[in-house]
Amino acid sequence: MDKDLVYKIALTQIPGIGSVLAKNLIGYCGGVSQIFEKNSSFLQKAPGIGKIIANNIKSFNDFSAAEAEVAFVKKNNIKPVFFLDKDYPVRLRNIPDCPIILYTRGTENLSPEKCIAIVGTRKMTEYGKQFVNKLIEDLIPYNVTVVSGLAYGVDVWAHKQCLKYGVDTFGEVAHGMDRIYPAIHSNIASEMISKNGAILTEFTSGTKPERENFPMRNRIVAGLVDAVIVVESAAKGGSLITAELANQYNRDVLAVPGNIGEKYSAGCNYLIKNHKANVIEGVTDLVKLLNWDVKIEKNNQRQLFVELSDDEQLLVDMLRESKELGVDQLMANSGFSSSKLAMTLLESEMKNCITSLPGKRYQTVF
User: What is the pTM of this model?
Assistant: First the structure.
C-alpha cells in the first residue's frame, strides 16, 4: 500500500479542510504525513486552522476509506496527481483553490501548449450547435486542447466534434471515477481517453454528481485553460459561474453574441454588455486574442553587450528554446514566485531582450 498516497487522500476527507487549508497545512507542517503527526497546539497555529479543525485532524484515525481509494485507482488504471507533482496541470496549479489531488484517466500531458474551454447551456439550439461545429473545425491547425464538462448540450457536443476532427479534449466531471454522468456519455468518455484526451476529477470514487459539486467542477475547468468560450447560456447557469471564475483567475473569456430576447443568448449578451467577456464570432477572434498567429518582425541586428542577470538569462533561454511561453508556464519552468517572475520579466523587457504578447505570453526579441 502506498502510504504517502493514503495520507494525501485522507487529508481531503477531514471535515472542514478544503484545498486552500490543506495547502496551508502542508506548507506549515512540511509535508502531508507530518500533518497527522503534529500535536493540536502546533496545528492550531497554521494559517486558517483553529481549535476545531485541529481537533478534527487529531481525531481522524480511520484511514480505511483512503486505503480503499488507493486500491481502487490502482485497479482501474487511474492516476492521482498531487498538486506538487511535476505533471500536475501547470495552469491549474496557479489558482489559489486548485485541488490538492486530481484523479485522471488518459493522457499524462495535462499542460498542453494551447488549451481552451467551451461551455454552455444543456439546452443547446441549432445556432449554438453550428457555431461549435465551425469553431472546432477551424481550430484544427492550431493544435489546441478543448476542455468541457461532459454534460448534456454544449459540453458533450464540443467533445463529440473534437473526436470527429481529431482535436484533443479533456472532460472535467463532478463525481468519482467509478461512474460517468450522465451514463449515456460513457462511450464518449472512453473514446476521449483512447484518443489522447482525458477524464479528470477531484472527487473520490463513490462520490455522486450532487448539485454542489458542479460549481467546484467549474472552477477546475476555468483553471485548466487559457480562455473560456461561452457558446449559449440563459441568464443564470453554470456557464456564467465558469466565466466569472475565469475572470477571477485572469483567464480570457469570450462569449458568442445572440439575438436580443433569445433565452439561451441572454447569458452571453450579459457577459459582453458588462465587459466580462470579449465577443467571439469565429476562430479569428480567439486566435487574435491569444496571439496564436501573430508574427513579430524581429530585429536581425542583435543588441551586443547586453548584460543579463542569471535569472534574466534563464528566462531568455527558456523563451528562445520554446519560441514563446505564457506566464503560467514560465513560472512552473523557472520555479520563480509570481512577484520574482514579474520583476525579472520587466527587467528583461527594459533591456530589450524579450517582448510581451497578448494573452500574457512572451517571446525573445532576437
Answer: 0.79
